[in-house]
Amino acid sequence: MRIKILIRLKSQILEPQGKVIEQSLNNLGFNEFNNIRQGKLIELDLPDNLSKEEKEQKIDSACKKLLVNDIIEEYEVLG
Amino acid sequence: MSFKSAVITFPGSNCDRDALCYLQDLTKGVVYNIWHEEASLPQVDLVILPGGFSFGDYLRSGAMASKSKIINDVIKHANDNRYLLGICNGFQILTEIGLLEGALIQNKNLKFLGKNCFIKKKFKNNFNLSIKEDQVLQIPVAHNEGNFYCDNETLKSLKNNEQIAFEYCKGEFSNSEENINGSIEAIAGITNKKKNILGMMPHPERAYSDFHPSQDGKLIIESLIT
Lengths: 79, 226
Prior knowledge:
- The complex is a heterodimer of chains A (79) and B (226).
- Chain A has 79 residues and is of the alpha+beta class.
- Chain A is built from two helices and three strands.
- Chain A has helices spanning 16-27, 52-67; strands at residues 2-9, 40-45, 73-78.
- The longest helix of chain B is centred in the N-terminal third of the chain and has 12 residues, at 16-27.
């Protein structure tokens, strides 16, 4: 099964890339685009025969050990 | 007994050679260069994690390097109360390992900063003993993710335990800034609670020789040796 993990900076952390993207979009006339923040998406394959619990446990463990720095980031597994 | 030290090289390290020369010239002792895939470290007094872009800064700066094989021995070295210095990418690696608190995020103005900057010591530790109170040091920086961040609780504990080693400050150049990269409280370097581990964004190994614009970086090694 294909897994998608969305990682973003916590809301209290300044995300300057989003601010610059917002400025550029505003300059192009997209004035209603506000509060832009950029994150990252990690996609990976896991075997289909894993139970829901095993899957969650493996993803959480990988996120805690490497993929996410919980001082500055949070993550969400997309359905 | 002579002072022994080691520099770890990761794929993408680019200040390892400077760090080796820095240690060789200033300590006059044995300096080992250790590849990140080696399983063990020789017994040394100081280990430097050098600057650069280990593993291409993929995922997050320092994230991959913090899981390298040699890191188990680097942690043991630090747990034995011996000195560990992370410079620039080395500082990022130390926070990713969890040996130092906080994290280094993108510079506030989105610019890669490669220039001379000024720092002064905040709280006394073994790495800054030879530096006087209010002495302004000129040491270059070269980083994109040097903006030190931590939550309020961590900041309070860094202060209570006197773990802030260096902070950015204004210097003799008219265009010098109080806080070059947006770091909380202009923090340029911190130690662990026991103060045998220092992480700093400025590069002392680029400020020691006669051909460097400043020799203030000498003071860090002098502090450890004397």
